[in-house]
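Milestone M4 deliverable, item 7.
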Amino acid sequence: MQGLLVYAGQLAIRKQEARYVRLFPRPTTDTMPPSELLEGFEAAGRLLAMVVRGSPPEVRAWSPRGCADPEGYAGAGCVEALVHGWDVATGLRLAYDPPRDVCERVLARMFPDPGARTDDPWTAILWATGRADLPGQPPQTEWRWDATPQPLD
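Output delivered:
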């Protein structure tokens, strides 16, 4: 099974270097160089994008966050990429400033709770995922995004 994902990853990022893209570290003692880790993230993101684009909007698939449509899975992938990208950058003491238009769309789709609204959608996402405080709102200790399918137009 992992071979199929690796082959898809090779094609997704059009790998030219003479080695397979690593989507997962090997056993827990293995560390991946940052360049290979980023390469794996890129391949995984492209694979998700390809599947989302190739899925009709009426498709539904189980998720522990609620049965989701392709848009819900795209949003879930965006939440993962945004907040774990921030986690990694913070751990490495690097600046991380994602595009606010992307954050606004992700926030509106995945965290529709009006309590998450603020002038800065990135701060609201950090609050909604328990990573930051938001003035006037309680800290988030348990959170989940909403992958509920949106009505089809």
